[in-house]
Amino acid sequence: MTNSRLFFTEKLLEWNRETNTRSMPWKGEKDPYRIWLSEIILQQTRVEQGLPYYQNFIKNYPDAKKLASAPEEEVFRLWQGLGYYARCKNMLAAAREIADTYQGKFPAQYDQIKALKGIGPYTAAAVASFAFNLPYAVLDGNVYRVLSRFFGIETPIDSTAGKKEFGDLAQELLPHDQSAAYNQSIMDFGAVVCKPQQPLCNECPLNKKCAARQQQLISVLPVKSKKLQIKKRYFNYFIVHYKDNIYIRKRTASDIWQNLHEFILLETSTPLDFEALQQTDGFRQIFGNTRFEFEGVGKPGKQQLTHQTIFSQFISLSVKQPLPATDYMAVPAASLNNYAFPKTITAFLQQRHLQLF
DNA sequence: AATTCGGGGGT
DNA sequence: ACCCCAGAATT
User: Fold this and answer.
1) Active-site option among A10, A39, A267, A293
2) What is the mean pLDDT of chain A?
3) Closest CA to B9 C1' — which residue?
4) For a FRET experiment, which of A34, A99, A233, A341 has its CA 20 to 30 Å from that of A116?
C-alpha cells in the first residue's frame, strides 16, 4: 500500500463518518432481498427516479417468494416507466431461482449471488458487501470517476483494460474489515462531492493529493472512448377499435421495449402521413381489404432514448369486422391498464383521456 | 470487444 | 445537444 492509497481510504471513511448526510431507505439495510431489489432498480438509474419504484415493490412483494409467485404481467406493470425492461425479466428469473433453489433464502456466497440473472460484477459486490460484509469492492460510475480523478488515471473506463485496471485498484483500496462502509462511502462521495459536473473540490477532503486537481484534468476525467450514434425511427401506431376492443400485442423481437405492449405498429424509415401510410405494403398486410373508419389522430410523440429517437404518431380507426392481422389480439379497452406499455404509449393514453375519440 | 437495452435530470 | 445515472446481457 502506497501512502496516497492509505490516505485515500482513510479520508474517505472519515468523510463518511463525519460529513456524509446522504440518506436512503436501504442504507444500513441488512435484508439481502431488499438490498438486491434496490440494486437492480438502481442500475443506470438515479436514486430519485428509482425510489418510488423500490417502495412499491417492497410493499407488494416483501420477500423473494412473494415476488417469485407474482403474475408476470403484474410485475411488469409495477416496472412500467422505469426503463431497461430486461432488468424486470431477469429480476423475476432470479427471484424464482432463489425460491426454488435456495428455498426463498437469499444465497450468501459471492459466486452464488453473481450467478443469479441480472446480477453482474457491480451488483454482486454490492449485495455481498452490504448484506454479508464480504470483501468485494463495488465498481460503478461513481467509483470510476473518483478513482480516475484522484489517481489521475486516463485509461478509458469503457475499455476492457480500464475495467480491469480500475477493478484491481478498487479491490486493493478496500479495507476488508469495513467493506460495507467503504463501498457506501466511495459511492456517496462520488455522488455528493466528486460529481460529474462542478465537483466540490474546495471542500473535498482529498483535494491535497488529487492528481486531477494538480494536473487540471478534472473536466477530462474519467475518459470515455466510445461515442454513440443515434438513429431516428418513425413509429406509426394505429389504435383500432373493434366493438369495445382495441388491438394490441406484446413486443418480443430483439429490440427496444421487450415484453411491453403496443398498438398496431407500422414502422417507417421516414415520416409519413396517414394518406401515404395507406399506400404502403405494411398497411395492406395489416388491414387487407377490411373497411375502416377514421376516428382521429393523437398528439405526435418524440422520445429520446440512449441510441435512438422515436417519433410516434397515433391514428385511431374503427372497424366493423375483425382484422386479418394475426399477431395482434383484441382486448377490451377497459382492460388496457392491466398491460405494461412504454412511456410513449402511456403518454398517449393519458392524453386521450382528456380528448376522447 | 462492441452494441444495445429507457427514461429522467442537469448543463 | 450532450452527458450521466448504485450496469448487464447479447452479439
Assistant:
1) A39
2) 96
3) A46
4) A341
- On the question of pLDDT at A351 being above 60, the answer is yes
Contact status, residue A48 vs residue A82, Cβ threshold 8 Å: no
Distance CA A48 to C1' B8 in A: 10
Where are the domains positioned within chain A?
3-214, 231-355
Q: Which nucleotide is nearest to A228 (CA to C1')?
A: B3
CATH (residue range A231-355): 3.90.79.10
Distance (Å) from CA A197 to C1' B11? 8
Count of helices and strands (H, E) across chain A: 15, 8
The DSSP-derived string for A43-92 is TTS-HHHHHHHHHHHHHH--SHHHHHTS-HHHHHHHHTTS--THHHHHHH
pLDDT band at A354 (very low <50, low <70, confident <90, very high): low
In 3D space, the residue among A159, A124, A145, A265 whose CA is nearest the CA of residue A196 turns out to be: A145
pLDDT digits (tens, 9 = 90+) for A41-71: 999 999 999 999 999 999 999 999 999 999 9
**CATH class given for the domain over A3-214:** mainly alpha
CA distances from A281 to A276, A284, A310 (A): 11, 5, 22
Give residue-wise pLDDT tens across range A286-340.
Answer: 999 999 999 999 999 999 999 999 999 999 999 999 998 779 999 999 999 999 9
Estimate in Å the CA A256 to C1' B4 gap, whole number.
Answer: 9
What is the distance between the alpha carbons of residues A20 and A188, in angstroms, rounded to a whole number?
7
In tens, the pLDDT along A241-286 reads 999 999 999 999 999 999 999 999 999 999 999 999 999 999 999 9
A39 is catalytic: yes
If we measure between CA atoms, which residue out of A182, A147, A183 comes closest to residue A165? A147
State whether the beta carbon of A103 lies below 7 angstroms from any atom of strand B: no
Distance in angstroms: CA A201, C1' C11: 41
